[in-house]
Design a protein that fits this description.
The chain is of the alpha/beta class. It folds into 2 domains: 8-144, Hexapeptide repeat proteins (UDP N-Acetylglucosamine Acyltransferase, domain 1, 3 Solenoid), CATH 2.160.10.10; 203-262, Udp N-acetylglucosamine O-acyltransferase, Domain 2, CATH 1.20.1180. 15% of the residues lie in helices and 26% in strands. It has 4 helices and 29 strands. The chain has helices spanning 200-205, 210-225, 230-237, 243-253; strands spanning 8-9, 14-15, 20-21, 26-27, 32-33, 38-39, 44-45, 50-51, 55-57, 62-63, 68-71, 84-87, 92-93, 98-100, 108-111, 116-117, 122-123, 128-129, 134-135, 140-141, 146-147, 152-153, 158-159, 164-165, 170-171, 176-177, 185-188, 194-198, 261-262. The strands form 3 sheets. Strands 1-4-7-10-13-16-19-22-25-27-28-29 form a 12-stranded mixed sheet. A 9-stranded parallel sheet has the order 2-5-8-11-14-17-20-23-26, with no helix packed on it. Strand 27 (185-188) and strand 28 (194-198) form a beta hairpin. Helix 2 runs antiparallel to helix 3 and helix 3 (230-237) packs antiparallel against helix 4. The N and C termini lie far apart (44 Å). Mean pLDDT is 93; it is low at 265-274.
Length: 277
């Protein structure tokens, strides 16, 4: 390996020689990188980061001060079975973040490409966080949670184990998500968390057409505002030719914990509203 591509390792860092380091990796003061860990090209670890040996990190990912990646699950059923954490490329992991490895032999906790985990956020065992999702400061995911692509979990929010948050959905600050949150939506509140509105701004920023946004808005309104049975409506929507509407229908029909409730008396939100992120 040439000098130009050799890892830059601070003298106080402890890096096991059996760790695999890509080119141009930077490892800051007092970091610990265990045997078996794999860091892709151009990764950077700020001071006091601990990377366990079960962790694979994609290229260009930055992990900031005092984060712990791949630690033992907070699960009484865990019996030191071999399990993993996989982190994608181009992720930004901020200060004091914890990501725990899976519970159960050969299971994984997965963080997709481009994910941002802000300071003090937590990703529990066996979670899957899809690409470009954002967890804001002090947000928390219980075990086996699924966070959809480009979802946004606001500060202090918590997602109960086994719950799902759909693609392009915004979870409000301090929310307690104890039922599944459907795609393309805003959910907020606690015990129970409630569906509030379509995520108008998020859908527009994602480049969905006016026709797609209208179909999404009408589908969500039928499920959450019509007073009809959400399951019956979802069965009808499962015949839609619009892929995004099919995604909403599947989220309802496939939910194991049940979908969150609508907000009673919610006003209608139009295409020119400012709801979302």
């Amino acid at each position: 390996m040439t000098a130009a591509t050799a890892p830059k390792i601070h003298p106080t860092a402890v890096v096991d020689p059996r760790a695999e380091l890509g080119s141009d990796v930077e490892i800051g003061p007092y970091c610990v990188v265990e045997a078996g860990a794999k860091l892709g090209d151009n990764c950077k670890l700020w001071p006091y980061v601990h990377v366990f040996g079960c962790v694979t990190i994609g290229s260009g990912t930055t992990i900031r001060t005092a984060s712990v990646i791949g630690g033992e699950p907070q699960d009484v059923k865990y019996r030191d079975d071999p399990s993993r954490v996989s982190i994608g490329s181009g992720c930004r992991i901020h200060e004091h973040v914890t990501v725990h490895r899976g519970t159960g032999a050969n299971t994984d906790t997965v963080i997709g490409d481009g994910v941002m985990l802000m300071a003090s956020s937590h990703v529990g065992h066996n979670c899957r966080v899809e690409k470009n999702a954002i967890l804001v400061n002090s947000s928390m995911l219980g075990g086996h949670v699924h966070i959809g692509e480009r979802a946004f979990v606001s500060g202090g929010a918590a997602v109960h184990q086994f719950c799902r948050v759909g693609r392009l959905t915004l979870v409000g600050g301090g929310a307690m998500v104890t039922k599944d949150a459907p795609p393309f939506s805003i959910v907020a509140g606690s015990y129970p968390v409630r569906w509030r509105a379509p995520n108008t701004i998020g859908l527009r920023r994602a480049g969905l057409t006016s026709e797609q946004r209208t179909a999404i808005r009408h589908a969500l309104a039928r499920i959450f505002r019509s007073g009809e049975s959400p399951l019956r409506v979802a069965h009808e929507l499962s015949k839609s030719p619009v892929p995004e509407v099919l995604e909403i229908a599947r989220a309802v029909l496939d939910s194991k914990r049940g979908i969150c409730a609508g907000l009673r008396g919610a006003k209608s939100h139009h295409e020119d509203g400012e709801d979302g992120f």
